[in-house]
Amino acid sequence: MGYLIARRILAGIPTLLGVTLVVFLILRLVPGDPVAGLLSGGPATPELVAGLRAQFGLDQPLPVQYLSFLGDALQGDLGTSYATGQSVTSMISGQLLPTVQLAFAAALLSTVAGIGLGVLAAAVRNSFTDGLIRVFSVLGTAMPTFWIGLMLILVVSFQFRMLPATGSDGFQRLILPAVALAVPAIGVMTRLVRANVLEVLGENFVTALHAKGLSYRTILLRHVLRNAVLPAVTVAGLQIGGLLAGAVVVETVFARQGLGNLILQAITRNDYPVLQGVVIVIGALVVLVNIVVDLVYGAVDPRIRSSLAGR
Amino acid sequence: MPIRRRLGIIAFPAAAALAVLSGCSAQSSGSAAEATPAPGGSLTYAVSTAFGSFDPNVTASVVDARVLRQVYDSLVDLDAEGTVQPWLASAWEVSDDGLTYTFTLREDVTFQDGTAFDAEAVCYNFDRITDPATKSLYAVSLIGPYDSCSAKDPATAVVTLKNAYTPFLTNLSTPFLGMVSPTAAEASGLADFGSNPVGSGPFRFASYRPNSDVVLERNPGYNWAPESAEHQGEAYLEQLTFQIIADATVRLGSLRNGDVQAADDVPAQQVSTVKQDSSLSYLEQTQSGATYQLFFNTERPGLDDPAVRSALVKAMDLDSAVKATYFGAYQRAAAPLAPGTIGYDESVSSGLSYNAQAAADELTAAGWIPGADGVREKDGQRLELTYMGPSPNYDNRQELAEFLVQNLKDVGVGVDLELLPSAQAFAMMEANTFDIATTSFVAVDPDILSTLYSSGSIFNFSRTKAFDEDLNQAQTLPAGAEREALYAQIQAEAISGAYSVPVYQLVYRVATSTAVRDIGFDPAAYPKFHDTYLAQ
After folding, report:
1. Interface check B209 vs A, CB under 8 A
2. B211 vs A30, A261, A269: nearest CB
3. Least Cα separation, residue A173 to chain B (angstroms)
4. B contacts of A257 (beta carbons < 8 Å)
5. CATH 3.40.190.10 domain locations along chain B
6. Which of A40, A262, A270 lies nearest to residue B2, judging by beta carbons?
């Protein structure tokens, strides 16, 4: 197992390098210059712009800029914000936890609710309940998270005053944002699990189990679920990336601390170092989560464990 | 003079109805019964945009300045009439050549960390701003040709400029030139001072959670408010929290819900609802500086002819555009400078009016004849313009642009509307491939016109060189009628020459619960909470 983990981590390194390169190039190859966006200063002369550009190292050739950025990044230094002069590493570390909490709460919620609803819908397929769940899952994937968030705030917080609308502290303030973020993911997960369960239910071994006299309930929960849930684990892992991205929107609506607000500010202020830093950190998180998913996959399915380890 | 396009605020005030209290006091609606100021209580003020840095010497953000104003005092105060008044400096003398400023300082002022405020501290501030390591984005431009500063004695600081620069004194009143504690700035270092600010203002910094809130608390012993304040001594509020709530619906909902007691950046379409809500008070303050304007690039074919530019101005129904876009919440701008700015003169745009027929006739007279597809042509050149609009859609300026583009198309002008983020807009500015561009600035000195019309400025979108001499002269003229007259003349010529056309005035709009009283505003519409109290 240790060998497996080490191999997966090593394989993640080129992915992360790719992320840094792509982010770095995209920011710089798009026409335009960050300095003008920063300037609100007095008679803004071309000399002032050139001076700031030199201070930020933007007058260096691209490869030199990239290598010096990479060198610093390897030592945990993601540079200095153009707009505030603060260290990007410390700006990110202060905002990382709320976003990770939100994304993982939503991932957990979407996985549990998605599997539950999917299995239920498959178990009672073509019934009214199944129809209701299917409508919900389609609607869920179709509704934008900011709208769900706004509706939750208007109804739950402002109308019924059950939960606080804004802020980042404590479990209470995590509930609504996590629900808003999870709804589309629940929709996807529900549809996937439902389809998988139905597929597995049609397999020969299920007929055999029926013939053995096992109850429908036992067959469903013991044998079918285990097979049907495997692809769901992969999707849950893939969704983490999407949830981290979705957190950007949800954090803004709920006025939560987090990388989302940081990245929004960085975009409006042309703060390249912050933007790079956040994207790289999110990239690292996604790589990490996928390693974990691979391992979980192995734990759930012995066949995969042996094939992964044996390669 | 931060660019309004990027940092959230909005446009103009009062319908012709109620008396507009200009300058420092904002217009207020809602039923606010008389109450006596009493110390105590805490106020949560919801703002629309996250903060960057609370280091006044570094940041360029209007949003940050709303917090800076509470934490830092300035050497001088700018009153509603645009006159510079004493604050931390009790008096000053300017040498006849305009190069030397001798400030006499108050001797009873201490910074919030106990450091004494004296001439050494003043000089430390100027030297910190001009140190390239500070990477100042804005403050450095406000002190212009600063050369050196020396402390003659603890109460006398002498500042020398490289050349005469009248805006220097006015600019000293802004929060961006608020005095930082030298001890604290040195101890924190550049990277950390922005999140641990220490000044001498009525509120001191307590805590800051980026993207969430900043908490300030009353500065005990504060007794050096400027004359413009309603009272001397400590602030009334015990605690003042700025909470960031980006979404306008949630921000106003949190106010109605009682979670916060005030919310800024009331959306234009909500203004009338808020005004009618008896549980809320509505405050608005015009921001001094340059109004939102549209510039014609005089270096582009077609637009190099003043007759064409002038016809385009007539072709645009600006009154209706502003009314339709902002639901009557903002007013049409009358001049390049905003009301409340030194040198403001609303008469400079007299004679400007919408007349599509006249516009069409003038274009025809200038030799631009409609072609087969309706777009005008002259000598084989089509009259097709690139209109550079903002992205994201700050202040509904994209809708405004759509409206004006339609006006121009109606008189046979082809328009390509390019909505560009600032970095891309800058690329287009450098390539000089745009025909129409727009901007606005918050500022206190009329020298903001140099940013708009001097050939050395990157924001001189009309690319004119016609005003360089006048603008340079106005920078050195002493404050007073002669200087203001020169600025009025520059503005009148900018409009009659159709280099730019004023569109609407920026207004900072705040809704509060009715218990909140006496939020003050300086001319740039930065709120002042020293006099603010909660009615029982």
Report:
1. yes
2. A261
3. 13
4. 209-212
5. 28-48+202-285+511-536
6. A40
Task: Enumerate the residues of chain A whose CB falls inside 8 A of the CB of residue B423.
Answer: 30-34, 36-37, 270
The answer, yes or no, to whether residue A164 has pLDDT greater than 50, is yes
pLDDT tens digits for range A26-42: 888 777 677 766 765 45
Return the CATH fold of B72-189. Dipeptide-binding Protein; domain 1 (3.90.76)
Domain at B28-48+202-285+511-536: CATH code: 3.40.190.10
* Distance, CA of B337 to CA of B346 (rounded, Å): 9
With 90 as the cut, is the pLDDT of residue B64 above it? yes
Q: Which positions in chain A touch B245 (Cβ < 8 Å)?
A: 166, 255
Residue B302: CA count within 13 A, CB half-sphere? 25
Looking at residue A24, its pLDDT comes to 87
A 10 A CB-CB count for A288 gives 15
**Which ipTM score applies to this complex?**
0.83
Q: Is A20 on the interface with B (CB under 8 A)?
A: no
- How many residues does the structure list for chain A? 311
Cβ neighbours around B162 below 10 Å, total:
11
Give the closest-approach CA distance of A258 to chain B in angstroms: 7
Residues of A in contact with B137 (CB under 8 A): 38-41, 52, 83
Shortest CA gap B263–chain A (Å)? 13
Taking contacts as CB-CB distances below 8 angstroms, the residues of chain B near A35 are 426
Give residues with Cβ within 8 angstroms of B18, minimum separation 6.
B27, B29
> Mind listing the domains of chain A with CATH numbers?
2-61 (no CATH), 96-309 (1.10.3720.10)
The answer on pLDDT for B121 being more than 70 is: yes
Q: Which helix (H) or strand (E) holds A207?
A: helix A204-212
- The confidence band for A311, taking pLDDT boundaries of 50, 70 and 90, is very low
List CB contacts (< 8 A) between B459 and chain A. Answer: 44
Residue B363: band (very low, low, confident or very high) from pLDDT cuts 50, 70, 90? very high
Partner residue facing B1 (CB), from A42, A256, A264 = A42
- Which site among B166, B394, B422 would you substitute to test the A interface, given the most A Cβ atoms closer than 10 Å to its Cβ? B422
Q: Residue with structure tokens 């709804």?
A: A183
Give how far Cα A269 sits from Cα of A263, B4, B144, B489, Å: 10, 12, 24, 35
Contact B377, B371 (CB under 8 A): yes
- Asked if A255 lies within 8 A of B60 by C-beta distance, the reply is no
Site of tokens 């709120």: B527
pLDDT of A268-287, one tens digit each? 777 889 989 998 888 888 88
B245 touches chain A (CB under 8 A): yes
B-chain residue closest to A264, CA distance: B50
Answer whether B456 sits within 8 Å of A46, measured CB to CB.
yes
A53 token code pair: 């550009």
Share of chain B above pLDDT 70, in %: 94
In contact, B293 and B491? CB cutoff 8 Å? no
- Hey, what are A63's tokens? 């490869």
> What's the CATH code, domain B289-367+376-505?
3.10.105.10
Residue B146 has pLDDT above 70, yes or no: yes
List b or e across B458-493, with b for residues whose CB sees 16 or more CB atoms inside 10 angstroms.
bbbbbbbebbeebbeebbebebeeebbebbbebbbb
User: In one letter, which amino acid is A284?
Assistant: A
Query: For B253, which of A37, A153, A261 is closest by C-beta distance?
Result: A153
pLDDT the model gives residue B516: 96
- For B505, the token pair is 């005035």
Distance of residue B304 Cα from the nearest chain A Cα, in angstroms: 23
CA angle, B435 then A58 then A51, to 5°: 75
Query: In the predicted model, is pLDDT for residue B7 greater than 50?
Result: no
